[in-house]
Batch of 3 targets.
Target 1
Amino acid sequence: MPTVLILNGPNLNMLGLREPTIYGAETLKDLEARCCARAEALGLHCDFRQSNMEGELVGWIQQARDGAQGLILNAGAYTHTSVAIHDALRACELPVIEVHLSNIYKREPFRHHSYVSAVAQGVICGFGSHGYELALEALAAILNRNKKG
Amino acid sequence: MPTVLILNGPNLNMLGLREPTIYGAETLKDLEARCCARAEALGLHCDFRQSNMEGELVGWIQQARDGAQGLILNAGAYTHTSVAIHDALRACELPVIEVHLSNIYKREPFRHHSYVSAVAQGVICGFGSHGYELALEALAAILNRNKKG
Amino acid sequence: MPTVLILNGPNLNMLGLREPTIYGAETLKDLEARCCARAEALGLHCDFRQSNMEGELVGWIQQARDGAQGLILNAGAYTHTSVAIHDALRACELPVIEVHLSNIYKREPFRHHSYVSAVAQGVICGFGSHGYELALEALAAILNRNKKG
Amino acid sequence: MPTVLILNGPNLNMLGLREPTIYGAETLKDLEARCCARAEALGLHCDFRQSNMEGELVGWIQQARDGAQGLILNAGAYTHTSVAIHDALRACELPVIEVHLSNIYKREPFRHHSYVSAVAQGVICGFGSHGYELALEALAAILNRNKKG
Amino acid sequence: MPTVLILNGPNLNMLGLREPTIYGAETLKDLEARCCARAEALGLHCDFRQSNMEGELVGWIQQARDGAQGLILNAGAYTHTSVAIHDALRACELPVIEVHLSNIYKREPFRHHSYVSAVAQGVICGFGSHGYELALEALAAILNRNKKG
Amino acid sequence: MPTVLILNGPNLNMLGLREPTIYGAETLKDLEARCCARAEALGLHCDFRQSNMEGELVGWIQQARDGAQGLILNAGAYTHTSVAIHDALRACELPVIEVHLSNIYKREPFRHHSYVSAVAQGVICGFGSHGYELALEALAAILNRNKKG
Amino acid sequence: MPTVLILNGPNLNMLGLREPTIYGAETLKDLEARCCARAEALGLHCDFRQSNMEGELVGWIQQARDGAQGLILNAGAYTHTSVAIHDALRACELPVIEVHLSNIYKREPFRHHSYVSAVAQGVICGFGSHGYELALEALAAILNRNKKG
Amino acid sequence: MPTVLILNGPNLNMLGLREPTIYGAETLKDLEARCCARAEALGLHCDFRQSNMEGELVGWIQQARDGAQGLILNAGAYTHTSVAIHDALRACELPVIEVHLSNIYKREPFRHHSYVSAVAQGVICGFGSHGYELALEALAAILNRNKKG
Amino acid sequence: MPTVLILNGPNLNMLGLREPTIYGAETLKDLEARCCARAEALGLHCDFRQSNMEGELVGWIQQARDGAQGLILNAGAYTHTSVAIHDALRACELPVIEVHLSNIYKREPFRHHSYVSAVAQGVICGFGSHGYELALEALAAILNRNKKG
Amino acid sequence: MPTVLILNGPNLNMLGLREPTIYGAETLKDLEARCCARAEALGLHCDFRQSNMEGELVGWIQQARDGAQGLILNAGAYTHTSVAIHDALRACELPVIEVHLSNIYKREPFRHHSYVSAVAQGVICGFGSHGYELALEALAAILNRNKKG
Amino acid sequence: MPTVLILNGPNLNMLGLREPTIYGAETLKDLEARCCARAEALGLHCDFRQSNMEGELVGWIQQARDGAQGLILNAGAYTHTSVAIHDALRACELPVIEVHLSNIYKREPFRHHSYVSAVAQGVICGFGSHGYELALEALAAILNRNKKG
Amino acid sequence: MPTVLILNGPNLNMLGLREPTIYGAETLKDLEARCCARAEALGLHCDFRQSNMEGELVGWIQQARDGAQGLILNAGAYTHTSVAIHDALRACELPVIEVHLSNIYKREPFRHHSYVSAVAQGVICGFGSHGYELALEALAAILNRNKKG
C-alpha cells in the first residue's frame, strides 16, 4: 500500500482559528482526518504533517524519497520565498502535487509567484480542503499509471 | 440535473494530433466522452464545446448564465491575452474552474500570467485530461454545497 | 445628412444585465435609442452596432471610410489589447471619438492603457451612457467646423 | 443656482499666445466667456480661475466644498506630478470632471499618467475649448440626477 | 507540385488603399498575382488568403499541415499580440517564413516584439511586396534541401 | 495587568557586540531590562524573547493571541523577506508595533521594503533602544483607548 | 528652553474635517494644543505651523537652523514628491523626526516612498496624533543626550 | 544691449551657507556680482533672480519672452520634477542654457534626469560658479551668431 | 557595374569550424565565393570582408559612401552592442540590408535587440548562407528601382 | 593551529545521492574527509558542518568569531534569499570565502544573485568538490599574509 | 606650458561631411585649428587626436597621466557603452572634461546615459565646436586654481 | 606539456600603477612571472598576454583552439559588455576559467553581470593575483581528469 506524504507549511496549524471566513471552520486535525479517509478509500496510506520551520520541511521532503511514493505540499508562505524547498523537491524524484486552500492568484501580487509550481507535476488551488482530496485522487491515478506503464 | 458547460479555446481541436508527447494521444472527441461519462456519474449534464474564435467563446460564456449551472474553462492561448474573456467571466455569476492540460508554470514566462485565474473559483493544471474530471468533481461538490447552504 | 458609425465591442451586448450597479440598468437597445434620438436632433444619421469579434470590428472600421463621416468607438476589452483595431483606425481617415461608460483610470491597471486613444481625436469616459451623447455633440461640432473650414 | 468652479493650472494663462497651432487662438479670457455663456444656458453659475501655483490650486479645491456644487479641472502640468492636488480632490466630496484641451494620450509618455483621473468622475480630452462645454453639460446632468436621486 | 500557403492578417485587405506612401500603391490582388507568378516560376502552387479574424487564421494554419508543404505568414497586427497563432505555428510542423512589408524595427516599440519570430524558420522584412518573392525563393530552397536531405 | 510580547529576530542576540558604532554598546540583556522597567512603569507585564529561527518567531506570534494583549516586533532581517511572519501577524488580532534600532530607510535598498509594516498598527525606527520604550508608551495608550472604547 | 519646530504640509489644515473615520475628529488646532502641552511637560518650547506651499515649507526649514533646536515634520503629500524639502533638510543640521498620522505603508503604493526618511533621524507613523507626542519625547531624549555627549 | 535673465531655483538662496565643502563659500550675492561683471564685459545686461516657488519661476520664464533675449537656468531640485517649468521653457522661444554648480551625474540617481535638458540649447555642469560665466560666454556667442545669421 | 560591400563581424571567420550543427559546414571562403557568383549573376560587383574589430568595421562603413552603392551587414555580436556602428550606418546614405545566418529571435534574449535594424532598409535572418543571396537579390531590386525612379 | 569553519547549507546532506550527473558521486562524508586532509596539509584544523535550518547557520556564523580564524561557506539555496546570513557574516569579522559546487551563473536567473558575495572576501564556483580545496588554499594564504602583515 | 589632450571618438572623423545640418560644416581639421588657437591664447599646449577604436582611446587616456595636465574627451558613441574608458579615466588622476557637439539629452534615450559623466569634473554639451573652447577655458581655470591652491 | 593561455583585458597593463590600495603593488610583469612559475610546477606551459582591444582578445580566443589546452581569462571591463568575447568562448571548446583580482560582486552594480561566467567552467574572484594561481591549479586538475576520463 503506497504512502503519500502530505506536508503543510507555516501558519496552517492555525486552520479553523484564523480568518474562518476565508479558510473555513475546519481545523488541521479535521483536515487530516478527511485526507486519511479519502486516502484509504483510494488504497493509499497517508502521512500528514505540519511545520512552521523551512528547514524541517526541507528535511521531510528529503526523507520522502525513501519513505513515500508521492508528495502533496501546501507550503503556505514558503511557497513564495523558499529556494531551499524548490531544490529539495527537484531532488526527491517523486510525483509532487501543489495544493492551496485559497486561489492564490486572487490575492496579493507577492503570492502570485510560486517556487513550488515549477517543480510540481500539477497545481490545485481555490477549493478549500476539498483540494487535498482532489490531489489524492490525482496522485492515485498517477501512481496507477506508473505501475502499469 | 444541472448542466456544466465545458469550453475549450484555440488549438485544442488539434488534441491528440499535435505534440502527443506533451498532450497525450487522446483526441478532443475522446476527452469529451470521458467528461460526459464522469459528469453523468456525478449527476451532471455536460455541454462540451471548442472554438478558435475569442468572440465566440465570449458569447458562450454570456449564454452560460441562462443555460448552465457551472463552467469549466480551458481557454488555451487566450488565457494569457484575453481581457474580453476576463470581463465575460466576471459577469457570468457561475462557479468557474480553470483547467489546463499541462502545468503552465513550467512553460515559457508569457504563459505564467492568466487573465482567467483572477475571476475563477479555483485552478487545476498539469494532470492532462484527468484534470477535467477533477474539475467536474470539484464543481459537483460546489453545487451540492450551494444547494444545501 | 452625415452618418455616424457607433461601434461597441465585446460584452457590451450584456449592458443592463451585468453588474448594473456599475453600468446602470439601461440595455444596449435603450442606449441605441438614446443615441439615435440625440443624433437626429443634431442632424446626424446614426448606425449603431455591437460585436464580440475583434476581426468584425476591424472590418466595420475599414468600411466606415466609404459609408460614414465620423466614428464613435467603445472597444470594450479590446481597447487594451488590439493593435489590429489601432491599425484600422489609423487608416480610416475619419474623426474618431473614444468612449467608455466607466472611468477606466479608476479600474485595474491593465485597463489604464488604451490602443485607441493614440489614434482618436478625443476621449470621453466615466459618464455612463450620457458619454455617448457628449461624443455625438462633439462630433457634430467637428463636422460643422470641417464643413466650414 | 448651483456654482461650478472651473480651475486651470500652470501655463494656461498663456493660452492663445503660446503654440497657437496646437492650442488655438482663443485666450483664457475668451475661454472664460464661452464657459460662462454655456453655464448660464444650463442654469449654472460659473467661477473661473487660473493659477501657476500648486499650493493655490490646492487651496481653491479645499474651499470648493463650501462654495461650489461641482468642479471642472484642467490641472495642466500638475496633472502628471501633483499628489497634493490628488489628495485635495479626494477630500472635496464634489463631482469632479477632468478636462484637457489636447488629447494627452497622443503626446509625450510622461503626460499619459494623470493623478487627477483616479479621483475624477470622468475625463474629457482632445476637443479644445469645446471640451469645457461638454464638461459643463455632463456636470449639469450629474447635478440634475443627484437632485432627483 | 508542392503547395505554399500564404496568409495575410488584419488590415492587409486595405493594401494600396491606406497610407500608400508607406505601403505602396499595389493592392492585395496585385500582390497575390505577383506571388502566384513567382511561385509558378519556382515550381510551387500558391494558395493566398487574408482574414481580419485571429481565429480564422489559426484555423488555416491548423489545416496547412494536411494541405500545404510550406507557410508564409504576414500576421499584421496579430504578430505582436497573438499567442494563439504562436501555438498553432508550433504545432503545424511545416517550414514557416515570417514576412512584413515594412521594417517593423523602425516603427513604434510595440511592434518590435513578434510572437511569430520565435516559431519561424526565418524572417524577412522591409522590402515591400518584393519580400514575399524572397520568401518564396527561400521556401523553394528549403523544400529542395529537405527533399534531398 | 496586560502582557506585552516583545520579539526580536535574527542577529539581535549580538547586540552590543557587533558594530557598536551603529547599534550602541547596550546588549540584548540591557535592552530587556530597560523594556521591563518601562513596561512596569506603564502598568504592563513584559515578555521579551529573541530567536534566529523564522519558524520559531512564527510560533510565538501564533501563541500571542492567547497569552498577550499586544506585540512589539523587531524582526531584524526577516522584516524584508518573511511572508510567513506577515501571515502570522495578520491572523493574531492584537495591536502590533514594528520597531527598528536603526533608520532602515537610510540603509541598503533591500532593507527599504518591510513585510511587517503592512500588518502593523504603526512603525517606529531610528531611535536606537529608546524606540522600544516609545513603542511601549504607544501600546499602553492603545490598550487604554481600547479598554475605554 | 529649546524650541522645537513642528511643520505640517498640504491638506493638514483640513484635519478633523476630511475623512474623520481615517484621521479622527481632532482639528489642527486641537493637535497644536496637545503638542504644546506635551512639549512644555518635557521642557521644550513648541512652534507649530502648516502650509500648502512647498516653497514656504522649504523656507521654514531653512530658517530652523537659527531659530530651533529640533524639527518634527509631517510633510503630507510632499513626503513623496519633494526633492526640494529633501535638500533643505539635508542642509539644516538639526535632528529631524518624520511623523505621519496614518501608517503610510498600509496605503497606496505611491505613498510607500518618502524623500524625508533618508534625511531624518527616525520615523514614527500610524499612531494618529499621539505620534506627535512620541516624536516630542524622542526629540527630548536626543537633545538631552547631545547636551551631555 | 541684450538682457540675459539668470534664474535660480529652490535652496540656492542658501548658497555659501549650506554644505560649503560641496558648493563653496561664495554666497548668491557674490555669484550675482560675478555674473554681472562678466555679462558687462560681454556686452550683456544681467537680470539675476532666485525663488523657492515653482510657480514664481514659471511666471518669470513666461515674462522672459518680452523682457529678455536669453535665459540661464539653474532650477535646483525642480530640475528633476517640474513638468511645469519644462512647459514654460518650451513656450518661451529664447535660447536657454542649463547650469548646475555640481556635476549632477556624480550624485544620487534621481538627479540624473533633468526636465530642463530636453528643452535647453546646451548644458554646463560641475564647474561651480565658473559655470555661470561659461554659460554667459556661450550665450553671447549664440546671440552674436543669431544677429549675424 | 555597382559595387556591393558585404561586411562580416566578429567570429564569422570561424564559420564552418565552430558549431557546424548550427551554422553549417560552409567556411567564410565558401560563403564569399557563393556571394560573388550570385552578385555577378545579378550584375553587381561584390567586395567581401570580415573583421573582429568594432573600429575597423566603422571605418569600412564610412568608406562605403564613396566606394560602394549598397551595403550588406552581418555585424555578429556587435549587432547587439555597438552604437558606433549604428551611427556610422546612419551617416552612410546607402541602402543597407541586415543579414544573420541564424534566426536571432529564437536565441538568447540579449540577441533580440539589434542596433542595426533601426537604420537598415530591411532584415533577413534564419536562412543560413542563402540569406546573403536573398539580400543580394533584394539589393539589386532596390538599385534598379532607384536607377529608374 | 588555526581553525577553519566550513559550513554547508540546505540539501547538501543529499550530496552524492541527488542528481549525481551534476554534483558527482561523492557524499558529504567524502567531501568532509577530503577537506580535512587538505586542511591538515596546509596546517589548518577543519570544523565541517551542515544544516537545513537558516537560523542554525546564523548561530554557527555568530559563534565563529570566537572559535575560528576563517570561514568557508556554501550556503546552498539560502545564498539567494537570506538577509539574516548576510547580516551575520557582516558582523563576524573573519575572512569569509563563498564556495559553490556548480557554476551558479550557468543556472536559473534566481541563482545569479548572492547575498553572500557582497560580504565575502572572494568567490569560487564551478569546480565541484575541488573548489573547497582551492578555498582552503586561498584561506591559508590570507591567514599567512595577515600573520605577517 | 601645460599640455591638454583632446580626444575624439568614433565617427568624429566624419565631421563636416555627415549630417551638416546637425553638426555644422566645420571639419575635424578646422576644429583642431580652432582648439589650438584658443589653447595658445590661454597658455596651454593642445594635443588633438581621433580614433574609431575603443582600445586605442583607452591607451591614450592611460598615457595622459605622464604626458598631459588635463583631458578633454568627446567619446562619441563609446560615451554610452564603454566601461573600459570609464575605468581608464578613473585611474588617470587628471581633471577631465566631457564635451559633446550636440545636446545628447535631446536625442534618443540610449544617448542619455554616459559612462564618462560619473568620472568627469564637468560636462558641456550642445554648443557645437564652441563647446571645446568653453572646455579649454574651464580647464585653464582649474589648472590655475590647482597651481595656487 | 599542455599550454595554458592566460588573457588579460583592458587596463590590466596598468596593474601596480593604478589604485594600488585596491589592486596591490604587483605589476603585470610580476603577475606573469608568478603565473609561469606556478604553471611550471604544475607541469603546464603558460602563454600570458594583455590587450586593450576587444577584437584582439576575440582573435586570441579563436586561435587558442589550436594552440592551447586551457584558457584563463580576466576580461576586465569587457567582462560586462562583450557579446563578441562570449561568442568566441562558446566556440573555443576548451576549459575556460574566469578570474578577477577584486571581488566584482562588492563593486558597482554594472560589474555584477558577466558575459563570461555563462560560458566558463568556473569563476574565481577576490583573491588578488593569488587567484590566477588557484585557477592554474584548478585547470591542472581538470586537464588531469580529462586525460584519465
Target 2
Amino acid sequence: MAGRIPPPLPHVAALEAYTPGTQPAGAGWIKLNTNENPCPPAPEVAAAIREAAGDALRLYPEPRSAALRAALARHHDLAEENVLAVNGSDEALALLVRAYTGPGAPVGYLDPSYSLYPVLARAAATPQVTVPCPVDFSLPVEAVAVAACRLFFLTSPHAPSGRGFSRASLAAVAASFSGLLVVDEAYADFADEDAVALLDRHPNLVVVRTFSKGRSLAGLRVGYVLAAAEVIGVLDRIRDSYNLDRLAQAGALAALGAEAHHARCVAEVKATREWLTGQLAERGWETVPSQANFVFTTPRDGEGRSGAEVARGLFEWLESRKVLVRHFPRHPLTASGLRITVGTRREMDRLLEEIDSWPNRAKQP
Amino acid sequence: MAGRIPPPLPHVAALEAYTPGTQPAGAGWIKLNTNENPCPPAPEVAAAIREAAGDALRLYPEPRSAALRAALARHHDLAEENVLAVNGSDEALALLVRAYTGPGAPVGYLDPSYSLYPVLARAAATPQVTVPCPVDFSLPVEAVAVAACRLFFLTSPHAPSGRGFSRASLAAVAASFSGLLVVDEAYADFADEDAVALLDRHPNLVVVRTFSKGRSLAGLRVGYVLAAAEVIGVLDRIRDSYNLDRLAQAGALAALGAEAHHARCVAEVKATREWLTGQLAERGWETVPSQANFVFTTPRDGEGRSGAEVARGLFEWLESRKVLVRHFPRHPLTASGLRITVGTRREMDRLLEEIDSWPNRAKQP
C-alpha cells in the first residue's frame, strides 16, 4: 500500500466544483458577468486597510471579529449575539450546510437559483430537494413551506432573475416551513424590502448578507449572518477560529460607517437599472423587473425570435466584443435569457451599442 | 412546528469549539502565548497591500490565487499543480479532514499535538486515533506507520514541545503508512529539516505551511498545501471558490519575495531561542531542544520542585505581571511545563526578570 494515494470520500470524489464567473485577464473588458458594483468602495475603506497593514499584521486577528459584529448589530438594531461575520457570504452558506444538513437531513432551494447550493450539498453528502420556480420567477410560497428538507436556501432578491420577494411572502414561508429558512440576501441593498425585520418573530429565519455587492467589496471577502443566538452559536463553533483577517475586519468596519457613499452608489445602480430596463424594452426585449444589481433579459434577433440559440448567439457576439455577460443554457427558464450586471452608464452605453451592432439584429432582407 | 429552531446535526450539537490563545485587550502586555513572530512583516507586504486596497477591491479576487501559487511553486521547485493557497493553514487542515475522513475513515494525530485536530474531527463526525508521544517527544515512527486511520496529522516540528523530526524519520513514516500523511509544518521556517524534498518520492505525503509564523503574517491568514496534483485537485474542488481575498494574495506574494528579510528574522528568532534555552538551563530548568519559534520548558520553584502546580503557579504569576505564556494542564506530558514564544531579546529579558522575581523562586528559609 505504501506510496499509494488514498482516495477521498466517495461523495467528494464525485464532486464537480462550483464554477465562478470568468475573471478575464488583460485590459479592455467590460465585465458584466459577476454582479460586481460599478462604484468604487468608499474611500474610508482603503484608509482603514492602509492603517491596518502595518506591523500589527504579525499578530493574529481578533478571532470573533468583535468590533465588526458590534457595528453590524447596531446597524441592524439587533444584539451582538445575533450576528456572525464570515469570509464572504459563501462561507456562511457552507457553514449552514455542514451544521444542519447531511445524509437524512436534506437541503432545499429554488430551481434555478444560486448554483453554489448544489455544490455545497454534494460536498456534505446532503440529499437535495428542489422547488421549481414559476415561469415569472415569483415566490412559490406554498411549495417552499411544505418542502421536505431541514434547511431551505431562498435567494431574495432572486438570482438569476432579479425578482424581489415581499416581506409578507417571506414571513408566510417562515411561519409555515418547519426547517431553517435561510434567506440569502446578497442583493438586498438594491431591493425595496428585506427579511431582517422578521427575525424577532421567526426564530427559524436566517438572513445572509455580503459586502461584495452593495458595498463594492467583492475583493475583500466579507459577509455576515443575522439569526437567533442559538444558530449563531452553532456556526461560531464550526467556523475557522480566525476566519476573517485583520484587513477584512478593518475594511468592512469602515465600509459600514460610510453610509452616504453607500446610499449614493445604490441609488446610482438602481437608476441605471431602470434606465437599462427601459432601453431593452424599447428593443422589444422582455426583462424581469429587477430588485438586484443585474437584469435578466430575453434577447430577440432581427426576426423577433428568442430562444437558447438566440441568447447564445448574442452572448458570443458580446464576448467577441469584449463585453462579458452570463448565459445559463442548462435550465429551460434561463436558457433564452442573459443575466447582465448593471454597470456604469458608460458601460451600459457600450453594451447597447454592441447589442445594436450584433449582425443577427439586422432585419433579414 | 412553525417558529421552532431546528437542531443542528447531533455531532455538531455536541461540539466544543477550538479555543485560540488569548488576544489581550489593552496595552502593556508581553504576548508569548500564540507563537507570533516578534519581527514585523517585510516592508514590501504593506506596500503591496496598500497598492491592492484601491478601487479594484470592488472586483472578485482571482479565484485560484494563481500568481501566489506560481510563486510558491517556484519557491519550492514544484509544479503549480502541486500547490494550493488557503485562508490560513487551518483551512487546509479542515479541507483535508472533510475530503478524506468521516465515519468509517478515522483521522490520527500525536497526543499531545495541535488541539485543533480533534475539533476538526468532531466537526466532521470522524473517529479519532491517537498515537501517544514518548516522554521525550521523539517521533514514534512504528506506531504512526501502523496507525489505523485514513489520514494522519504529524506536527513537525512538534507542538507544543518544539521537537524537530528528521527528514529520514518522516520518510520512514511516509513509506510505511497506508493513508495520507499530512506533515503540518507550521514551524518549519525555524527548523533544520523539513519534508518538502520527500514529496516526489511519497505521493501519499501532504505538507501544510503557513505565512503566520515564519513570515510574520498571522493577521493576514495565508497558508498553503504542497502535495500530489491529485490531492490538490480534490481540495480545490471543496474549498470556497474565493477563499483568499485580494489583499491576502498580494501581501503573501510580496512576503514570499522578501527573502533577505525572512532570513534575517528567522536567524534572529533562532539565536534568541538558543540564548533563552541557555538562560533557562542556567536556572536548572529542562527545556526540550526546540526547532520552532517557541520553547517548552519545565519550571522549578525555589525548592527545585516541578509539576503541574509549579507550572500553574508561574503561569499565573507571569499573567499578573502582564506576560502571557501558555500552560496545557490537561495532559500529563505537558502539565508540568510552559510553552513560551520566542519574542524579541528585550521581551525575553523582561520574561526572565519576571521569572526571577517570582516569589516561589525564592529559597524557603
Target 3
Amino acid sequence: MATIKDIADKLGISVSTVSKGLNDAKDISENLRQQVLDTAVELGYTKKKMRTASDDKVCIFIENMDYKKADDFGYDIVLGYKQAAFRAGMSVEIEETGPDFQAAHRYESYILEKGYKAAFLVGFALGDPWMAQLGSTSVPTILLDNFIKSNPNISYIGTDSEEGIDMAIAHLVALGHEKIAFLDGSKDSMISDQRMRAYLRSISHHHLPLDPSMAVYGYFVADAAHYHVPGFLDMGVTAIVCGNDEIAEGVIASCKAEGYSVPEDISVIGFDDIPAAASMVPPLTTVRQNRLEIGKCSFMILRTLMDGVALSKNLLRPSLIVRHSTALARPRVMVRRHDSKDSVLHVNPRLYDEALKERQL
Amino acid sequence: MATIKDIADKLGISVSTVSKGLNDAKDISENLRQQVLDTAVELGYTKKKMRTASDDKVCIFIENMDYKKADDFGYDIVLGYKQAAFRAGMSVEIEETGPDFQAAHRYESYILEKGYKAAFLVGFALGDPWMAQLGSTSVPTILLDNFIKSNPNISYIGTDSEEGIDMAIAHLVALGHEKIAFLDGSKDSMISDQRMRAYLRSISHHHLPLDPSMAVYGYFVADAAHYHVPGFLDMGVTAIVCGNDEIAEGVIASCKAEGYSVPEDISVIGFDDIPAAASMVPPLTTVRQNRLEIGKCSFMILRTLMDGVALSKNLLRPSLIVRHSTALARPRVMVRRHDSKDSVLHVNPRLYDEALKERQL
C-alpha cells in the first residue's frame, strides 16, 4: 500500500506539498495538484479522504490483454483511464472478461446490476457475444479499435493508422529505401485493413514500386514472420514495415535466421511501441500508440457520451520512435532462393486495385 | 441585456432557483445548475459574479458563415462552444476573419497578442493564409471540416459523412427507390470527397445500379442544381441525394421547373439540416449535423489538446430527419429529352473504380 511519502518521493516534492494536493489546499498550483492526484492513482494510494466525492463509477472490461505490470501493454491504458476518471470524481472498476462470461450475462443487465455509469471495452473480438448487443445498448460505451454503426451511445477510439504508416514509410524513404514490404496482422481485422490501405496509399504517394506480393496479411504474432520473410528477401526488399511490434520481433529473427543483419541489410519498423520494443535486439524503430492518452481520452469521450453528445470516431496522433532497427539502405542484389509459397495471403485485391487507380490519377 | 427573470422564464423555474444556480448554491441539482448556466450563456446574461473564475479565454474564428441570429447556420455552433467553455470556467471571444486579415497577421502572433489559450476555426478554406501556418503552430487549435497532418496541436471535428449518407440511401431503399442520383458539393473539398465515397459505397452495398453519370460534383449552392437535374430526370432517377441543403433546395426548384413534383415523382434528401430546411416546400428530409454538439465537442477536444493529448480526428454521429420531400417510389418511364451536357463534372473516376472493385468482391 502506497503512502504519502511514496508520492512525495516519486514527484521529488515534500510530504506536506503532497498533503496539500490531496486535501485540495489553495496554495499549490493546479498543475502540481493534478500531478499529485495522478501519481496517487498510479501508486494505488487509497486514503479515504482522497476517495471520489460522488458514488459514480465506471468500468473497464479487459479481454485477452495483460495490464497489471508496468511493462504490460494494457497498464498505461488502465492508468490513463483511472487518472482521467479520478480527476472527474469517479472511480473505476476493472473487470476481466471473455466469451464465456459474456455468453452468461447480458451486457446491459450486467452493467445495471453493477451500477456502472459507462464502460470502456478493450481487447474485444468481433465475434464476442457482447459485440452483437452493442448495436442497441443505452449504456455509454467506448471501444478500443472496434466500431459499431448507428448507436449514438457507442464510440470508437484508436490511433490514426494512416498517419502512423505514413511516418514509417517517409522515414524509410529518407534513408534511401525503395523496395519496402509490409507484413500486416490478421485479415478481417479492422486495424489490419486500415494499416494495409495506409501502406498502399503511402507507397503510391512516394512513387515506389507497388507489388502485391510485397504486402501480405499474417497474424498479430511473431510466428507469422517466418512464412513471409524469406519471400520478401528473395524479392530484394531492403525494409519491412510490420502490422505490430510482435510481428517485427519475428521479422528480425527471421532475417537473422536467413543470414541477414538488421539494420545493416534490412530495416524493420513495428507498430504500437510495446514496452518490450526498446529492449529488442536491435532496439525497435516503431510507430507509437500513446496508451496513456488512449486511456485518458476514452474516459473524456465517455463523459461526452454521458452528456448526450454522440461522438462516434476518435483517432489519436501516433508518433515515430526511431531506435536502431532502421538504417541507410544498402543496395542489394536480388536472388530468388526460395520457392514461392502458396500459403502466402496476399494483399486484398480490391485494396491493391484502389492503390493502383490512385496512382494513375 | 438578459435578466435573471428571463432565465427563469425560459426554464420555467423560479427566480430564486436561477439565483442558486448562478451562485453555485449546494441545494439545487447539478443537472439543473448546468441548465441554468447554459441558458445564461444562451441569453447573454453577464452579471459580474457569474463571470468565469479564471482569466482564461479561448477564441472562435469564423469565416464566411452567419452566426448572430438563431436561424443562422453558425448560431448553435457558437452557442455550444460558449456553453462548454463556460462550464469549464473559460470565456469565449468571437472573431470574424477572412483572407485579407489573415495575410496581415501571423496566426500564432495574433493568438499570443490577444492572449487566447486555444482556438476553434470555422468556415476556413484550404487556400486561406492561416491554413499553411497550422502545420507547425503550437497553439491548440480545432478545425471544423478540415484536417491538418502531423501537428499534434491540431484536431479535426466533423460529422460522419459515411454514416449520414448510408442513412439517406437506406431510407430511400426502404421506400422502394432504385435509381438514386447524387449531386455533391464542390470538387476538391474534403467533405465532398467523403460524401462521394460514402454514396458510392452505400449504393454498392445495396446492389443498386452504379452509373458514373448519376454521381456528379456541383457547388455548395442551389444554382448548381439546374445544370444537373435535367440529366438525372432524363435518366429516370426517382430520388436525388444532395451534398447539402442549399443544393437540395435548388434540386426541388429544378424538378418543379421541369414539371416534376417532389416527393410524388422525385424524392430529395439534403445534408446538414440548416434551420431553413424545415420550412422549404416541401419540408426537407435531410441528414442532420448536430451543430450544438459540434460546438460543445470542439471545446471539449480543445481541452484535451491543452492537456497535451493529441486527439486528431473526431466525428459526430449524424441523424436522419424525415420530413416531406421523400415518399414511396413511383415507377417512371425513362425519357431522354435533354442533350447531354459537356459541362457536367462526373464522379472522380478513381472513386468510381474503387466502388466497382468493392462490388466485385
